[in-house]
Design brief:
Blueprint (H helix, E strand, L loop, with lengths): L35 H4 L2 H4 L13 H4 L3 H10 L9 E4 L6 H8 L5 E6 L2 H13 L7 E5 L2 H10 L15 E5 L24 H8 L4 E5 L5 H5 L9 E7 L2 E9 L9
Parallel strand pairs: 1-2, 1-4, 2-3, 4-5
Antiparallel strand pairs: 5-7, 6-7
Helix pairs in contact: 4-5
Length: 259
Amino acid sequence: MSLDDSEYSMKPAEELPLSDDCHHYQGKHEVPWDIQKYFAQRYSIFSLYDYGVYMTDDAWFGVTPEPVANQVAHDMNGTDQKKHILIDVFGGAGGNSIAFALSERWSRVISIERDPSTLACAQNNAKVYGIASGLITWVLGDSFEYLDKLFNHTEELHPNLRVSLDETVLFASPPWGGPGYRTDEVFNLYNMQPYSLDDLHTAYNRLDHALFLPRTSDIRQIARLAPPGRKVEVVQYCMEGASKALVAYLPGKYSKARQ
């Protein structure tokens, strides 16, 4: 990047070094107790784990299992072909961003992550999976801030982060938490923390967007988000006969229905 990049409040991230918070655990004896069950499933999370995948301890809780990420990427191949840029607004350790890049559906994938150690892991993991340099544009920052600038203050974004809204789709796999997330038969998405369904939809509704949500999410709440005369598609994603999550595919309020 040039010396003039300092004039932009958000710009593409440089390649970040793996920090002390980035780990490639090789045995259960190394793993903190609260992520041992996830470590036992590491090859379902990243099939190439042994080839040098790194994650922060927090990232284990939120990474999408690889078969699910690949199926979501496959399903999103069927979205409006005029839209060829995908923004992964909660990039995490890279699971979904890598799947989208490998699908070859998108001319660009922009992956946003606000924690530098997690972003360093994602960049490393993309290399493990052979992602060509430049296919994923990494951003170290807050995705809500990025979208606000994209919609309202594009001059504050580095030119490489300015995209045509008519050519862009959002994917969001937010953190899941809040009262009842693990116990309620039907989860109230307006109680989800730290970002409720209202927070997410308010930020994203200008664009077509896909929300990766708990499998017990209240479908009625999702259905109400459809623009007038439009429908929301909801897909449950399963592994080994058990539902892992659902994805709600929501049209943007300004997008036109495909003929």
